[in-house]
From TrEMBL, chain A:
It is a multi-pass membrane protein. GO terms for cellular component: membrane. The keyword Repressor does not apply. This is NADH-quinone oxidoreductase subunit H. Keywords: Membrane, Transmembrane, Transmembrane helix. One of its GO terms (molecular function) is NADH dehydrogenase activity. Pfam families: NADHdh.
TrEMBL record, chain B:
This is NADH-quinone oxidoreductase subunit D. In the C-terminal section; belongs to the complex I 49 kDa subunit family. It is found in: Cell membrane. One of its GO terms (molecular function) is NADH dehydrogenase (ubiquinone) activity. Keywords: Cell membrane, Membrane, Multifunctional enzyme, NAD, Oxidoreductase, Transport. Residues 302-552 form the NADH-quinone oxidoreductase subunit D domain.
Length: 361, 552
């Protein structure tokens, strides 16, 4: 296996530049570049939302059904795939019921904030095959920062719905995100120690170096292999971050009806759900990028996007698996695990990594 | 008022005499119910008498409180038992005059009397002095009259409009002085297992106070039974009390009561079939309890729920072959069962044995999935704690009591059917928590499988010319007037008791259902006080209530 990345040092071509070149927009100066950037963002946002569209109404049902010994959707099209169309029509044509006590416009903005924050994160993710919107030097920090905006959306949704269950769900979501964002970022930083850069492109590139050369195959130095401990920590913290079992407290349907999204219907419901799935995918994208070599995989570099999406879906599959198999912890236990367990472990991991890197360097 | 005196064994007579001595002049007269001796006491002596009976004579189980109206008086009957020996029963009969139906409350002696007396007040109209909270329990607050009292006009419809109902969102729940939050859990909530409304006061995520509000599924089951004839018209109703696949167990409760009242001897062959069917129902019911509990603790995508339903389906198929119905069996008859095992018998035996053979592997799978899971254990161990004394005080029975180490199972302690002749164990657990109750049910499934297997063995070897499925029962049953009986069986959720008073006609004068869920649910407040919301949900799930049986 030879890890190939399209982002070779020096000749990194980002998607907006490529679009500008292809369409000749570059000749129109800043306005042209802006339009090209917008087009690039449009492409990536739509790619991600299309994935959510597949995941929400169809893949999730099929995956859960496989875990729970059922068949799930199978009437429309092969393996029921056209349920996506039917569901889209259904969801969009439903009445949007807005509660009397809703605090607008916070109530209306929350779904957009939740979905938008996740979409923003994809801007700095190198997805291979030249699909990379921007590669700022602070890439990793940027991803964490914009993903963290979702917390505001959650608390807005919880508070503005005027429903006690929403309120409890919103509070839980914030408590959970605060408790798990720190271990998440600290564990992410241990990767930075290895790569020596916050830039996503550089982090991916650093993982292309062979870790062990076994003659025929060379195992790349993906950070999941270099530091499995950090990888596991990051995975766990990520499940809490996206609110999936065993940490799906903010929604916890058996307890809080649907938590912060209780009062959302129709298009708003779709947006909130879309946001959740986007966050799962963003979580998968971050994991793929900083631990699994990004778009690296066997075959030509053009296949990068395929490998990258496969890695995202693998993380998605894992979340669904856990949903079917693992109980949810209680909110106090969750906070305890976060502050007393993961936080300590993630700092220990950081110190350990620093020591190792220091010794080797 | 007293008939049905049978020649009692000598030690029983001694026991009654001892009780008479204990009560002394407080016992006005004696009554003899078919199941137990009864003592008539003054409404003002109730607490005194019950306290003595509990403390000095050891009657620690107030199984049921029946209220009824005669032509000349109201009457409250406290059916007392011992957890150690449920065959040692005594009934305390408290008559109150028609114009002033006021009696002392038994609540200070037995906590469980709280809800029972509220129900008596609600349906019959007897008032209880010293009761902490004498409100209606099954009917809406706005209801006029007491439906089971003689003066009530059954023909007059009462429509209570939505606007007249108590509004659970009323601002009086908001207390500006306090830091707590009032939250309605239900009546429409994913975790209430039916239409239950729990008024919850939260302090952050902690439960400060809860109050279950029941009655949303009240369908006048007692009265419907009072309007049906003993012979055929009552038997379909029990299926609809605990309607999640424990129908045969419920039917047995009625069958046992009426058979004792009318002195009907059930053929042994029919008893074996009854035992077989009932234990299959228990397996199905416990599977469902396990699955829904998993829903509460795991979330709605859990595989466990579907697995338990997959396995329950197999039991449903067997029961369908046996009874012709999947849920509303109506299979028992007074004096036996409706028909023999389905032909070809070999096929039925094989199908049932196949299920039993696969069961151990499935139970092992559940243990892998659920009980050995560390997160599950941290969620369930030491949450929803119900101490044995508290359980007894609330009249808890079934897996709820046995999970608290109360060794009480009517199948063994008050034998009926064919249980005496079979080898099986009563499962108890000392954990007193949600985990213990879940384990208790899982192990009971295995014990039930043992019983079913032995029943199959016996049935297979049963001589072909002796397959009598029904006793010879008169077309019209008219038990002696004023004969009274209270009989209970071990249903899936606990002690399901039926009180019948005959008035000499072919329909019961009073038909009272003692629902195990009703008593068990009362303990929820005690169990969830000071715990977190998720614990409340888990505790509610581990109580395994069916609202159809709570509300009747």
């Amino acid at each position: 296996m030879s890890a190939v990345t399209p982002l070779q040092n020096g000749d990194t071509v980002l998607l907006p530049e490529r679009i500008a070149d292809l369409t000749g927009l570059g000749e129109f100066g800043v306005a042209g570049e802006l339009l090209a950037a917008f087009l690039g963002a449009f492409v990536i946002a739509n790619l991600m939302m299309a994935m959510t569209g597949v995941a929400g109404p169809w893949a999730k049902r099929k995956i859960t059904a496989a875990f729970t010994d059922r068949i799930a959707v199978n009437h429309l099209g092969p393996a029921g795939i056209f349920i996506i169309v039917a569901d889209a029509v259904r969801l969009l044509s439903k009445e949007n019921i807005i509660p009397e006590n809703a605090d607008r416009p916070a109530y209306d903005l929350a779904p957009i904030v939740i979905a938008g924050s996740a979409l923003l994160g994809f801007a700095v993710i190198p997805m291979g095959s030249g699909i990379h919107l921007a590669d700022p030097e602070v890439g990793l920090v940027f991803v964490f920062a914009v993903a963290g905006i979702a917390s505001i959306g959650l608390v807005m949704a919880g508070y503005a719905s005027g429903n006690k269950y929403s309120m409890l769900g919103g509070l839980r979501a914030v408590a959970q995100n605060v408790a798990y964002e720190i271990p998440l970022v600290v564990t992410g930083m241990s990767v930075v120690l290895f790569a020596g850069s916050l830039q996503m492109g550089t982090i991916v590139e650093a993982q292309a170096q062979p870790l062990v050369d076994l003659g025929v195959v060379s195992i790349p130095s993906w950070y999941a292999l270099v530091n499995p401990f950090a990888f596991v920590l990051f995975l766990i913290a990520n499940f809490a971050e996206v609110g999936r079992n065993p940490f799906d407290m903010p929604e916890a349907p058996a307890e809080l009806i649907a938590g912060y999204q209780t009062e959302y219907s129709s298009v708003y419901f779709v947006l909130v759900y879309l946001g959740e799935f986007l966050h799962i995918f963003l979580g998968g994208a971050i994991i793929a990028t900083i631990f699994l070599g990004g778009p690296a995989g066997p075959g030509p570099a053009e296949l990068g996007i395929v490998w990258f999406l496969l890695k995202i879906w693998a993380v998605f599959l894992l979340t669904q698996w856990l949903r079917s198999a693992i109980p949810r912890v209680r909110i106090d236990q969750l906070i305890e695990i976060g502050w007393k367990g993961l936080l300590v472990l993630s700092f220990a991991n950081l110190a350990l990594t620093a020591a190792i890197v220091g010794v080797i360097a | 008022m007293s008939t049905g005196t049978e020649s009692m064994p000598e030690d029983a007579t001694d026991r009654v005499d001892e009780l008479a001595d204990l009560l002394g002049s407080r016992a006005l007269t004696r009554e003899d119910h078919v199941n137990a001796p009864g003592f008539v006491v003054n409404p003002g002596d109730v607490q005194d008498v019950l306290f003595d009976l509990r403390e000095k004579a050891g009657y620690d189980h107030c199984s049921c409180v029946t209220a009824q109206q005669y032509e000349d008086r109201f009457e409250t009957i406290y059916h007392l038992k011992k957890y150690a020996d449920p065959t040692d029963e005594v009934s305390i009969v408290v008559p109150t005059p028609l114009d002033e139906p006021v009696s002392q409350s038994a609540e200070p002696v037995y906590r469980t009397a709280d809800w029972h007396e509220r129900e008596a007040y609600d349906l019959v109209g007897i008032e209880y002095e010293d009761h902490p909270d004498l409100r209606r329990i099954l009917l809406p607050e706005t209801w006029q009259g007491h439906p089971l009292s003689a003066s009530y006009d059954q023909e007059k419809p009462q429509v209570v409009t939505l606007s007249e109902h108590a509004n659970p969102l009323e601002p009086d729940h908001e207390d500006p002085e306090s830091d707590t939050m009032f939250l309605n859990v239900g009546p429409h909530h994913p975790a209430t297992h039916g239409v239950l409304h729990v008024k919850t006061v939260l302090d952050g995520e902690t439960i400060a106070h809860i109050e279950p509000d029941i009655g949303y599924l009240h369908r006048c089951e007692e009265q419907m039974c009072q309007q049906g004839t003993y012979r055929h018209q009552i038997m379909p109703y029990p299926d609809r009390w605990d309607y999640v696949s424990s129908g045969l167990l419920n039917e047995w409760a009625y069958a046992r009561a009426i058979e004792d009242l009318a002195e009907i001897e059930v053929p042994e062959y029919a008893q074996i079939i009854r035992t077989l069917g009932s234990e299959l129902c228990r397996i199905a019911s416990h599977m469902l309890a396990l699955g829904t509990f998993a829903l509460d603790v795991y979330g709605e995508f859990t595989a466990t729920f579907m697995y338990t339903f997959r396995d329950r389906e197999l039991v449903q198929d067997i029961l369908e072959d046996l009874t012709g119905q999947r849920m509303m069996f109506n299979y028992f008859r007074v004096g036996g069962v409706a028909w023999d095992l389905p032909e070809p018998r070999e096929e039925f035996f094989e199908q049932t044995r196949d299920f039993l053979d696969e069961l151990p592997a499935k139970v092992a799978e559940y243990n892998d999935l659920i009980t050995t899971n560390e997160i599950f254990q941290t969620r369930c161990i030491d949450t929803g704690v119900l101490e044995p004394d508290v359980a007894k005080d609330y009249g808890c029975t079934g897996p709820v009591a046995r999970g608290s180490g109360v060794d009480y199972d009517l199948r063994r302690d008050d034998p009926y059917g064919y249980y005496e002749n079979l080898e099986w164990d009563v499962v108890t657990r000392d954990g007193c928590d949600n985990y213990a109750r879940v384990l208790c049910r899982m192990e009971e499934v295995e014990e039930s499988a043992k019983i079913v297997e032995q029943c199959l063995d016996v049935l297979e070897g049963w001589p072909e010319d002796d397959r009598e499925v029904q006793a010879n029962v008169p077309r019209t049953l008219k038990p002696d007037a004023d004969a009274e009986v209270y009989r209970a069986v071990e249903a899936a959720k606990g002690e399901l008791g039926i009180y019948i008073r005959s008035d000499g006609t072919d329909k019961p004068g009073r038909f009272k259902i003692r629902s195990p869920c009703f008593s068990n649910l009362q303990a929820l407040e005690e169990m969830s006080q000071g715990e977190y919301i998720p614990d409340l949900i888990a505790s509610l799930g581990s109580l395994d209530i069916v609202l159809g049986e709570v509300d009747r």
